Amino acid sequence: MSNISTAYYPQSGSLVILGAGESGVGTAILGKEKGYDVFVSDKGLIADHYKEQLKAEGIAFEEGNHDESRILNAALVVKSPGIPETVPLVVSLKEKNIPVIAEIEFAAQYTAAKLICITGSNGKSTTTMLTYEMLKHGGLNVGLAGNIGKSFALQVARENFDCYVLEISSFMLDDMYHFRADIAVILNITPDHLDRYDHKMENYVDSKFRMIQNQTEKDYFIYCLDDPETIKGLERHHSKGTYLPFTQEQLVELGAYLTANKTMIINTPNNDTFTMRTEELSLQGKHNIYNSMASGLIAKVQELRNQAMKESMGSYVNIPHRLEHVACIGGINYVNDSKATNVNSVWYALESFSTPIVLLLGGVDKGNDYTMLADLVKDKVHAIVCLGKDTAAIHKAFEQDVEIIVNSTSMQDAVILSSHLAKKGDTVLLSPACASFDWFKNYEDRGDKFKAAVMEL
């Protein structure tokens, strides 16, 4: 049985994969197993371990170039989510009516596993990991894939899971058409990647809502009742599944809500009620209560026992680079939130702390509007250390609200500066609001260098 009930795509012939990262190589291996003539093309250089994998599988590939004549003769193309659809090669493929789809769309055809799909501008990695750990702890035979972990396609080829928890980005959703989520989750929608959506918020919202396309009456749609863009999107998009909202501002009969005494209540059809005091959650902060509510709703729909859920929610340790506690040195806590690559993520991070903060901010600015941070920065931040080249916007945004704003020349310099600016009881928080590509390879490299610099203090 397939998640995509009809074979909408050619099931043989030439399968071309654009991009030879984790998802591309996994797709190539699954494609080969399904009898396609597979060719992998990457305009950049392919990492050595992926090249070795392709060679071991006997799969043809090229790097540093696209053989357009070969690619334009494909029966089916699977492209990396990082390649925009405006790229001339993709435009040419679509003009020739050659299907261009995502790895998730391709691999879903070949599995009968239940697909639990999580998207959102912020919190999706944390919610995906918490859900995965909870379901695993509850005894389910569960895989983890999408924007996180091993390739979904490779796991469909080589593993035999009963369900998958998939972290799904809007870029992936843009290339998904017939895929169906058994459980679809939209955590929140805030401005991000708008350069890929003609700088129109509604286009980005529409992309996120592709998550619920093709849902049936048997499926579930979990969403935040307190998120304005999600609520606006609901006027244009509908699921046939059961709606399960989560909220900290209202009471709901079905879904998750918070009582006046800070108890999380979760009710799903035909299941007993789950209750847990928020102070017992291992992930603290308003945004993490939302993440826990979404994960809890998934777990209840999957009929996990309340005790197993409580154990997981009470002991879960957050993923690296997302509000990750690094060390306490001289009474100062150092926290790595390098994964915060947009302003909204920084808002969530600042909202989590009650201690005074020295904030490490900056990098490649994607046209950030810092005004939403103004009140939190005024209340909680007494110094900002700027990272990267684009520092003028940070100085301009916060010079009236923060006593000290200084530029740094490297991560090590930034950490040393912040250690002098912080007092006992303060938190030094790396939460950059920006991409990392000026000084670092990626946000992981930025976070690792922060941790290394802290440990050298």
TrEMBL record:
A GO CC term assigned to this protein in UniProt: cytoplasm
Catalytic reaction equation(s): UDP-N-acetyl-alpha-D-muramoyl-L-alanine + D-glutamate + ATP = UDP-N-acetyl-alpha-D-muramoyl-L-alanyl-D-glutamate + ADP + phosphate + H(+)
Endpoints of the signal sequence: none
One example GO MF annotation: ATP binding
Residues given in the record as ATP binding sites: G120, S121, N122, G123, K124, S125, T126
GO terms of biological process kind: cell division; cell wall organization; peptidoglycan biosynthetic process; regulation of cell shape
Keywords: ATP-binding, Cell cycle, Cell division, Cell shape, Cell wall biogenesis/degradation, Cytoplasm, Ligase, Nucleotide-binding, Peptidoglycan synthesis
Top EC group: ligase
Biological pathway: Cell wall biogenesis; peptidoglycan biosynthesis
Subcellular location: Cytoplasm
Matches recorded under Pfam families: Mur_ligase_C, Mur_ligase_M, MurD-like_N
Gene3D superfamilies in the cross-refs: Mur ligase, C-terminal domain (3.90.190.20), Mur-like, catalytic domain (3.40.1190.10), NAD(P)-binding Rossmann-like Domain (3.40.50.720)
Stretches of the chain forming a coiled coil according to its record: none
Top-level taxonomic group: Bacteria
Entry EC number(s): 6.3.2.9
Free-text function comment from the UniProt entry: Cell wall formation. Catalyzes the addition of glutamate to the nucleotide precursor UDP-N-acetylmuramoyl-L-alanine (UMA).
Protein name: UDP-N-acetylmuramoylalanine--D-glutamate ligase
Higher taxonomy: Bacteria, Pseudomonadati, Bacteroidota, Sphingobacteriia, Sphingobacteriales
Gene for this chain: murD
